Amino acid sequence: LSRLTGIRIDDGSDDPSRTVLLDKTSLTEVGFAAEEAANLLPEGQRKLNSKGLDLIYANDIDAGKLFGSDQTSGLIINKSGYEEIHQITKQSLAVRLLDKVVERLNSSNV
Questions:
Q1: In terms of C-beta density within 10 A (0-12 exposed, 13-18 middle, 19 or more buried), how is residue 95 classed?
Q2: Contact status, residue 32 vs residue 14, Cβ threshold 8 Å
Q3: Which of 6, 12, 55, 67 has its CA 20 to 30 A from that of 20?
Q4: What is the value of pTM for the model shown?
Q5: H helices within the chain, ranges in order?
Q6: In what order do the strands lie in the sheet with 28-35?
Q7: What are the φ and ψ backbone dihedral angles of 22, each rounded to 5 degrees?
């Protein structure tokens, strides 16, 4: 974690004043999108690119799975591909996302 120098928290709104920016050096931007299962990948990729993010988690909201539950499923998407997430706790997802950020910051691609 010694190279972890910046985290931007995007609340999903298009209002930049609602974004928390801790440090601009080596910034990794992560976003979240609530989508129906059939649109997870195309909409997640579209939002990743349109918002200029490095990583996005597209939540599967079919049948209200996301809201009011401590479980989630969806896709972690970056510019080189995606990872399917099947029914894990939101806390476990947070750890996985932070691991992806640290992995990116420790790579030479930042």
A1: exposed
A2: no
A3: 67
A4: 0.74
A5: 40-50, 90-106
A6: 20-21, 7-9, 28-35, 55-60, 71-78, 81-89
A7: -90, -35
The tokens describing 99, both together, are 């691991």
More confident residue, 105 or 15: 105
Please calculate the CA angle 107-104-19 and round it to the nearest 5 degrees.
140
- With bands split at pLDDT 50, 70 and 90, how would you rate the model's confidence at 48? very high
Contacts 24+ apart (CB under 8 A), 81-84: 82/41, 82/44
The residue type at 22:
L
H-state helical runs in 23-73: 40-50
